[in-house]
Amino acid sequence: MFKKILYPTDFSDVAKKAFESIKALRSSGVREVVILHVIDSRFFEAVSWHPTKDFAQMEREIIEEISGEVESMRKELEDLGIKVKVRIETGIPFLKILNVEEEEKISAIVIGSHGVSNIEEMLMGSVSEKVIRKAKKPVLVVKR
Amino acid sequence: MFKKILYPTDFSDVAKKAFESIKALRSSGVREVVILHVIDSRFFEAVSWHPTKDFAQMEREIIEEISGEVESMRKELEDLGIKVKVRIETGIPFLKILNVEEEEKISAIVIGSHGVSNIEEMLMGSVSEKVIRKAKKPVLVVKR
User: Fold this and answer.
1) I need a labelling partner for B64 at 20 to 30 A (CA). Which of A29, A52, A95, B118 fits?
2) In chain B, which ranges are continuous DSSP H helix?
3) A132 and chain B: CB distance < 8 Å anywhere?
């Protein structure tokens, strides 16, 4: 039931707390973790007026910025004997998370209850709420 | 992190699936499970016109009806070496669940994503959605 975990992260504090709970789950049969970060494509749309940057360049900058943190998570899990796959995607976060759940044949999702707070989440519900509603597999929601 | 599990159940199919996941979590340190069934007090209000029944009598009838199922869950967990406490409460389900989370010093909640389907859940969101939003501790949401 917890063999292959999908761990979507926006690197917020609660996402980091969720990461700790993956380690707590380890003895329940966790074999592999897919660490997923979704770069919100709407962010690109919001800054598309910017004259000196193109999407590909911004994407590269973001990936560079987060790679240190991602690699330290990878190492921590691998040291526990857990296989790790990292996916950095661009899109609408909750939709990408649900896509990856299908594609990777995930057994359970571990997610923070709220991401980096923003107005949209307050109005429309959090990414995790949408994921919980639409996911096929069990979702462990870790609270702030 | 999974030491003392709160398992709210309305005996729906998805609640039974959630029960299976408690067993899957066992090796992650589950020591005790609180099995909680909340008799929805609004149900009593809805039938309060009934001339021949009083609340206490109806409550007794419901408790009798569910006791077989509760006792077989208790036995199954105790056979795995897990301590079990059963609580049957009357009230608004999501509020009672949150009360019991506090009172029992729960470490995590395991719940089905949707209960016995009803119009109110469709309009107002499910009990589990409200629990996820307000719970202090991690919530494992098991899907239909």
Assistant:
1) B118
2) 13-25, 41-46, 55-79, 93-103, 119-124, 127-134
3) yes
Whole-complex ipTM: 0.89
The shortest CB-CB distance from B141 to any of A27, A29, A139 is to A139
DSSP A87: E
Are the C-beta atoms of A34 and A137 separated by less than 8 Å? no
Q: Are B89 and B39 in contact (CB under 8 A)?
A: yes
Taking CB atoms and an 8 Å cutoff, what residues of chain B touch A80?
Answer: none
pTM of the model: 0.90
Interface test mutation site (partner A, options B30, B113, B140, max chain A beta carbons within 10 A)? B140
Sign of CA dihedral B20, B23, B28, B29: positive
Compare CB distances from B21 to A1, A133, A143 and report the shortest one's residue: A1
Q: What tens digit of pLDDT does each residue of B38-81 get?
A: 998 887 776 666 666 677 888 888 899 999 999 999 999 999 99
